[in-house]
Predict the 3D structure of the following.
Amino acid sequence: MTSQAIDIPSRPRSSRPSALVPVGLLVLVLTPLLFMPLAAVYIFAFRGGWTAFWVSLSTPDAQFALRFSFMIAVATSVINGVLGTYTAYVLNKYQFPGASALNIVVNLPVAIPTVVVGTSLLLLWGPLGLLGRIVEPLGLEPMFTPAGVLLAHLFVTFPYMLGAVKPVLDELETTYEEAAYTIGASPWQTFWHIILPALRGGLFSGALLTFAHSLGEFGATVLVSGNLRLRTQTAPLYIFSQFEAGNIEAANAVAAVLATLSFIIFFVLLRFARQPSKDA
């Protein structure tokens, strides 16, 4: 019996599908949803040229709104950095009744509409509020003042710092912490020298996210601030007021500044998030 070679047709090598169609479809969908609205901000901001853009930003109202927003965002990041870190530490290190419920409550501001936040603060600290009517005779009126704006921003952005720090604490090994206790370190010394250095990445990300969200906060701020020019008017409220007045160029000039700051913040966040993988 003679053997004959049988030619078996070779299977075509599997190749990755072309990305042209999926990417083209994605760009087609995102263009009217994201790209064009963002481009419209800069187009209207610079429609009159650099001179008109700078004149719009040089007005006292625009300068105050940007400066006030920046100061509130910095203060919010610092205060929530301390409060969020402490809250994450307590929830991670201590077991107590109601810990799960407390963990849910401190994350609720993410789900609550910001207008509801503003309403709740007014009902608490306003002239007719539960605590407002008590502190008003003492000369303390937090609503419609910078203090009220800060309260609203602290409430709205609190979960961002907590959400950035607590996962780091949950994954942190306790070996070095236990070693510090065995050599006589106090809880404060252990936190300062062992735990806090390990939280630098979470603190950095949480601070940037808190700053970015505080910079653009609108819903709660418009209720608790009164939108008083040169007193409590933040940059988003200034944009809203200028649009209502028909001053589109001035509104978009400040909007372009906020958008650029947001781009820079999230660019830094993305670079920072990729850094560990490069080091690995």
User: Anything to note?
Assistant: The two ends are 62 Å apart (CA to CA).
